[in-house]
Amino acid sequence: MLKSDNVCIISKCNRAICILKDNYKDLLQNGGDNFLDIVDIDKLVYTKASKLTPLLDTNVFSEIEKNWIKENRRKAINRKTAGESRDRKKREQSKLVNDLKYLERYRDVLSQQKEEFIEEIYGLKWGIRKMSFEYSLAIPTNQLGVYSNT
Predict the structure, then answer these.
(1) pTM score of the predicted model
(2) Residue 97 belongs to some domain of the structure
(3) Residue 119 domain-assigned?
């Protein structure tokens, strides 16, 4: 159950004592109701911050143990942050892919509208030319191409 030689016993009032693993069963039998948690020193990194902060302020741990706990806590937080960052990047990438798909569909629609608009313009040009030609036939002109009233 407990891997290291020392264990940390966290009491309900957030006090802690470090004892040898062999002695913790005796201690629990004598005053087990007063203890909130028994934590392997290696697992202390994952205890709640409300439990951990008062412990690090006490003289229970040696400086080496305090530094080890702080460093591993930092590593655990970094792993959590890295996971959140990875998830955020995936969400952003997914959003960009969706935006790209939307823009491609929008581009296709605009391209189709452009073609229809060009066809409409050519149709109007041909219509204007046809009307112009028909109008020119309807107006009598003399041989010099000047319009005459006769």
Answers:
(1) 0.31
(2) no
(3) no
SS3 sequence of the chain? CCCCCEEEEEECCCCEEEEEHHHHHHHHHHHHHHEEEEEEHHHHHHCCHHHHHHHHHCCCCCHHHHHHHHHHHHHHHHHHHHHHHHHHHHHHHHHHHHHHHHHHHHHHHHHHHHHHHHHHHHHHHHHHHHHHHHHHHHCCECCCCCECCC
For the stretch 99-134, pLDDT in tens is 999 999 988 888 888 888 888 888 787 777 777 766
Domain membership flag for residue 46: yes
> Is 27 within the bounds of a domain?
yes
